[in-house]
Amino acid sequence: MPSQATQAANGIIIDTPGGITAGRALGTNIVAYKTDSMFYGTFQGPPTIWAFNQISQVVGAPCQEAVVAIGTRHIFIGSDAQVYSYDGATVDPIGDDVKDWLYANWSKLYRDRIESRHDKENSLIYWYFCSTQSSDGKPDKCLVYNYRRGKFGRADAKIEASVIYISGQITWDDLGTLPGVSTWDTLPNVPYNSSYWSQASEIPALVDTNHKLQSLSGVSQSSSITSGWFGDDLQNMSVQGVVPRFVKAPATCTGSAQSVRMLGETPIPETVGELYDGELACDFDCRYAQITLNFTGDHEILGAVPRITPAGSL
């Protein structure tokens, strides 16, 4: 309730139409979002108490979970499918690499249904959103942003909610009291050095479509990366292998490829061998090629280099 004693007040922002869709603190101030506009709120004291100055007439956020505060700035998915960063001074678009993909895959019907999570330890932001294939309004795709490296990725999953699970400390004496645990074989499939076992550890988690809480601390089952098209309009090339470089190698690594004579044509599937002696062997000629690497198990990859040689020109 409004109060002169506590300097609480209410009001409306009428500079642009529509209601407020999101609001996050930024330092000692606040940023209010509408669908297509933003306002920066500063404490003024009586009689105004809070003053809201318009930041943008075209950039806004569709819902509360679209905006993630990382301390010194907000990073959010705008209603126009662009990813933005706001530090209290300027609104900077940072999602040009994924804007077209996000616009094509983000459901226009369920744009206000986003679940987000901030993984501070790894400098990651997860946005779970409804794709164009979602018929029930539950998020089924996920855009991930590493704000330390400025890189985007995906971690698709169909969920009901994205949360941070705070685990309690587990001791040797408590092992037998865990739900469903009676023997060593029935312990959770979690590494012994996982933060799962530590007192008051924050673990990224989600609520799946079966209404069960799932921690994101298990071993990766499957993942993949796909290159862009590489090649030349005039120069044919012979693709003879792909050399990935790992910080931590996966349990398995396989590959596939496709080629075209001209960009825009229907791709032709090509054969790629399994990883052997640090390389996935292949042997095909083309002007343009695209390679996919498939992994099982936890891993960290720095990059992959195709081994190519010239094969004639026009």
Automatic annotation (TrEMBL):
Domain of life, source organism: Bacteria
Name by which UniProt lists this protein: Uncharacterized protein
Native source species: Pandoraea anhela
